[in-house]
Design goal:
- It is found in: Cytoplasm.
- InterPro entries: Alpha/beta_knot_MTases (IPR029028), SpoU_MeTrfase (IPR001537), TrmL (IPR016914), tRNA_m1G_MTases_N (IPR029026).
- Keywords: Cytoplasm, Methyltransferase, S-adenosyl-L-methionine, Transferase, tRNA processing.
- Pfam families: SpoU_methylase.
- The chain is of the alpha/beta class.
- It is built from five helices and seven strands; from the N terminus they run E-H-E-H-E-H-E-E-E-H-E-H.
- Strand 1, helix 1 and strand 2 form a beta-alpha-beta unit.
- The longest helix is centred in the last third of the chain and has 16 residues.
- The protein starts with 8 loop residues before the first strand and ends with a helix.
């Protein structure tokens, strides 16, 4: 059994805007054994009522941290371990080979990841298959799908 204080996975929300989504992502991170990283600026206060409500009573079990900016994050987590999720990627999320300790990066709800981050990701940029009628998927759903795909690949859900 892995050390509960050593995250198996890192989930990064780049400048999240909606507290309810972030709270739901936090709950998923507890279930996955992942650490949640939030990159400022945030669209809410971390003590926001809806953030805590969405995380329910799981928030106390969540390993999480807020960093001031992109540079602060990449100084702490190696960029070569990042998987960047964007609708502009060619590669499907199921074509990645995830390893424990990887970083799953998601952009803000309204604009996704900045172009410079998407470009820097290269073949580590991933997308979810969607029909053309759908502009985007809910952030918390995307984190759950990607996180559980990583767990499935490790055989960690058994």
């Amino acid at each position: 059994m892995p050390d509960p204080y050593e995250p198996r996975l890192h989930v990064v929300l780049y400048q999240p805007e909606i507290p309810y989504n972030t709270g739901s992502v936090g709950r998923t991170c507890v279930a996955l054994g992942a650490k949640l990283w939030l990159v400022r600026p945030l669209g809410f206060q971390v003590d926001h009522h809806n953030l805590r409500r969405a995380g329910l009573d799981y928030w106390q079990h969540l390993a999480w941290e807020v960093v001031d900016d992109w540079e602060s994050l990449t100084a702490r987590l190696p960029f070569e371990r990042f998987w960047c999720f964007t609708k502009f990627a060619e590669r499907l999320y199921t074509r990645a080979e995830y390893r424990e300790g990887d970083v799953l990066l998601f952009g803000r709800e309204s604009q996704g990841l900045p172009e410079e981050i998407r470009r820097a990701a290269g073949d580590r940029a991933l997308r979810f298959p969607t029909r053309p009628e759908v502009r985007s998927l809910n952030l918390s759903n995307c984190v759950a799908v990607a996180g559980y795909e990583a767990l499935r690949q490790w055989g960690g859900g058994e």
